[in-house]
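re the bet — no i am not wrong, look at it urself. input seq straight from the record:
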Amino acid sequence: MGRDISKTRFTEADLARFKQKLLEEYRILADWFQNGRLKKREDLCGFELEAWLIDRDFLPAPNNEAFLSRIAHPLVVPELSQFNFEINSTPQHVERSIFNKMENELQEVWQLCVANAMAVGSDILAIGILPTIRDDMLTLDHMTHISRYFALNNQVFQLREGQAIELNIQGRDILNITHQDVMLEAVTTSLQIHLQVSAEDAIRFYNTSQILSAPIAAVAANSPYLFGKDLWDETRIPVFEQAVHMDCYRDSQDEPLRRVTFGSGYARETILEPFLENLELYPVLLPQVFDEPPELLSHLRLHNGTIWRWTRPLIGMDHDGTPHIRIEHRAPAAGPSLKDVIANIAFFVGLMSYFTRQDTPLEEQIRFDWAEENFYQAARNGLSAQIRWVDRKKWDMQTLLDEVLIPAARQGLQKRGIVEEDISCYIDDIMQNRVRTGQNGAGWQRAFIAAHGVNFQEMTRAYFENQKRNIPVHEWEV
């Protein structure tokens, strides 16, 4: 959710000053693009993994503040609810043993989190939606005590004129509820993959990431249940989109433009286009004014952080103040095992490496409306989805992954110089077997309920034990 702020309510004067600074910073960013300030650099990859604190009964445990205070680790940070926290990675150069290094670091931080969670009477779990969460647990009493989160809640409901959030999901079951705060967002826990790229490559990476959101969401699906209902394979997708819904503005085609969205189109000329869309079409949610040099782009970055495209372009700052561009890919769910998490990252990086280096850009072969439809089909149906690919034909998702995308990811990683041991581990042993067995996280959860009955605490217990063993999900027994 980004940096904290000092206010939870704002005045018209705050908003006017913020908009003035936002426009000034956008002009600085545009000048950097024109004058080559965002120069060529080696690609870096990192990630954010959101996770749950759970109690001995596998219910959510609202004690992240005690946990975070105890662990005091720079890579472990708060999330919206007191049930959640986030693990960040150290960015790594995309070369040789990057994924083995990522797994080793994640394992080390994860075990540190386990020890500190146990010290405050909890365990930890990585999953797209915790099956034991109940609607009555999602109250402002369980919001993490950070001003940014309370301000976000206030501003969302101010723009909604106090109207309750309506969650309506039609899957295998139907869920219809209303909520008086933004805490529904807290049920969605994700893996967010970051690729730092050069300005000249950013458009291709941004567009390609949008197209690849469909197969990534399908293969990493891990969120079939919410409040006892069997919904989408990736129920996390519609929940997040509806949890902060404010249908009060329109895009250039007069269509509703949501804060959480697949997007409105590919970038055509420059990666500045989505930033300009943010400036012109999205109301400011958090008009916190900072007394900082405009070259830090503090206001632009804060505003950008309140618009959640499933592929999101970010402007970051190195420790020396040098700006950089990152493409944040938000499609995959958290979990099921740490090995699965790293395999999902390796698969995405391999696909991006392969398709961004093709002579014909992928966005010239797959129309944006196809990519968007593919994404929601994948979120709804997972590995059973039917999606349109470059030959204009509908492909069964499992077949496309097995015959086209997994070989492409392998080639992409080979071209980047990734060691064969990592490719064999994460692509051949984990990703390919997950696809061929059809058992991703969503598949395992549904199979468990089918075999043992509707007992979400028992399923979460079995999920927890499997995750603790750190074996990939395709090997989990039902």
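see?? The radius of gyration is 21 Å. told u. also The chain has a mean pLDDT of 94. so pay up
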